[in-house]
Amino acid sequence: xxxxxxxxxxxxxxxxxxxxxxxxxxxxxxxxxxxxxxxxxxxxxxxxxxxxxxxxxxxxxxxxxxxxxxxxxxxxxxxxxxxxxxxxxxxxxxxxxxxxxxxxxxxxxxxxxxxxxxxxxxxxxxxxxxxxxxxxxxxxxxxxxxxxxxxxxxxxxxxxxxxxxxxxxxxxxxxxxxxxxxxxxxxxxxxxxxxxxxxxxxxxxxxxxxxxxxxxxxxxxxxxxxxxxxxxxxxxxxxxxxxxxxxxxxxxxxxxxxxxxxxxxxxxxxxxxxxxxxxxxxxxxxxxxxxxxxxxxxxx
Amino acid sequence: xxxxxxxxxxxxxxxxxxxxxxxxxxxxxxxxxxxxxxxxxxxxxxxxxxxxxxxxxxxxxxxxxxxxxxxxxxxxxxxxxxxxxxxxxxxxxxxxxxxxxxxxxxxxxxxxxxxxxxxxxxxxxxxxxxxxxxxxxxxxxxxxxxxxxxxxxxxxxxxxxxxxxxxxxxxxxxxxxxxxxxxxxxxxxxxxxxxxxxxxxxxxxxxxxxxxxxxxxxxxxxxxxxxxxxxxxxxxxxxxxxxxxxxxxxxxxxxxxxxxxxxxxxxxxxxxxxxxxxxxxxxxxxxxxxxxxxxxxxxxxxxxxxxxxxxxxxxxxxxxxxxxxxxxxxxxxxxxxxxxxxxxxxxxxxxxxxxxxxxxxxxxxxxxxxxxxxxxxxxxxxxxxxxxxxxxxxxxxxxxxxxxxxxxxxxxxxxxxxxxxxxxxxxxxxxxxxxxxxxxxxxxxxxxxxxxxxxxxxxxxxxxxxxxxxxxxxxxxxxxxxxxxxxxxxxxxxxxxxxxxxxxxxxxxxxxxxxxxxxxx
Lengths: 300, 521
Ligand SMILES: Nc1ncnc2c1ncn2[C@@H]1O[C@H](COP(=O)(O)OP(=O)(O)OP(=O)(O)O)[C@@H](O)[C@H]1O
Ligand SMILES: [Mg+2]
Description:
B: alpha/beta; Rossmann fold
């Protein structure tokens, strides 16, 4: 194998790492605060569509990314409101987001032309950073920075103490003067922003198109990575990279002449999911989640 | 009122700081009657005002309303004459009112310092943990509430956690401090230290509301007392104008005996026997050694000691919750080492735990379900894996009645809304109705009022007469001395000595509890 292949795999891995890691880190913030949002997949899908539309309407990739984040924030806000002041079921609203996204995005795609597929013009895609050995998306270093930043936020700031306190013992936080629902709502919005960004990255950066299946279960993989990481953003980054690596490897194998004839690509495409499952299964029971995860807080 | 310090009080003594008029509280849909009924109450600068009342009288509810945790149904609350309406504890804190809750309000996974940081009003991205640790250290030194700021709260004993609660509230520098049974998990000397702190705060012009069942404490610290009975006041008076008997009668209608006479232990058979056992978690302590405790059938063994000296670990080992690091645990001539909690239960080991809300009951489950929590698999409560509602109801009803628990409905009431004392009554009922051969009781009367304490003691003696062995773990020396046939003292994971309960020398016990090695002879 030549060196360029290694670089190729590394770059694909890094690019595949971005969306799941961003979504997983958002979920980490949210779960630390005690909310459990299984609607990541849906937010990714909404973000992908919103990113594409925003980029095309404005002619700017940056605006596209911001649109994705804005839509994500909005969904986070709705989810957060349902799970806090409305005391609704987090499971059901999460499922709702996923179903709504599936239906809505499919509908929009068919309205916009070729059903199920919508490509994004190259001019409004996120420009890559040329590195000689390959081109890297600026979202890769941003993802690494986000992981480090969120780790710092959760473990080394007053806000992090508040976020974790409302997840562990909302009553204790409440009597200490913390506005529990407000902190949770904020965490839900932050999670929405990151998942929305991840979605926009899929459509206007990595793939350059929107399809119905663009997310390919990445939202669920992100949930699995949150379990793997035990709510540590740095481990989520590692988990994201492992998944990305197998994803990258699969893409490479599936397209590399000679190898693709020996190993069936379906098998290779399965790899990232199987590896994630195996790793998560190994971790379950060992990591510790906030005591009040998924439980709405009411005072009396 | 006590003498005032001349160190420049912030507030004028005697001014009313917090005042409630015509306060009522109902929980519609749960209780038909009002939980608080047209209540008047105030606390003045410079005083300790004690709220006294039996289990379920509404003491916690008043404190919760005054601190903003619950909303009132009716009535007026004024802070320094200004009408207020709190919708959250945050608003209470903003008006200088802080509360130490009856149940611990801590994050177990956080360190002591992190727990205190939760209440800090600091900028979002700051991280003042070093400063907090230093301030804790200063408070610890000043008030003698010994605790390590870097320790994880879940690793602390209940008594130490209680100290953290008090430290946490001191950080807010409140003007009015509400303490809901803050001494329940403190040793008598720690309680006395706390009273010195409270006195000092009162002398600084703060108003203290103190909730307790214990007469000794009421007389040690209060300026005024208000007696509460089923949500109504029975009047407020100066402590100097009343005495213990009168207060006890006004509160409970009867008094508690000091010593419980009983016949000699009649059996030789061992109910609980540990052989050179080192409970898990103690094996790393430098001083710990194997524990060999032998309790006969029909014997009450008191285990005295300051909390955090290995009692929790010992209990976990003899109830099967955590297998011991080494040594053996025998129950009624069967080696139970390494067996599961379920096997311990089936062997007849009852457990009245110290953290009752966490491991004593399932808070989100209903009263009837909690009552059969350990028996639902058995007849008559289930048949072919299907629960039998009727049987469970009548059984739960019997227990609720026998133990005088205040419970609105067996199948509608979630246990979390019950008062602390009422939860304890349910646990006592559930653990003892089968007359189990071994009862491991940790602070069994903590939070109970005098009447219920008396009933519990009588219950233990009755069970003893029928051959049950009781391991009674308590920090309350009075309780240990009046109930135990023999008393063991635990210090830093080892048993310092064992003496007969009758005529036990309080000084020797105290000496052992502090780690001394004087002999009992
Ligand atoms: N959130 C709630 N919903 C319904 N009922 C409640 C709630 N909180 C308290 N109660 C009821 O109000 C009554 C008074 O309770 P409270 O906790 O004030 O008693 P207490 O005087 O503090 O007793 P204890 O000495 O046992 O702590 C109890 O019967 C309790 O079940
Ligand atoms: Mg109470």
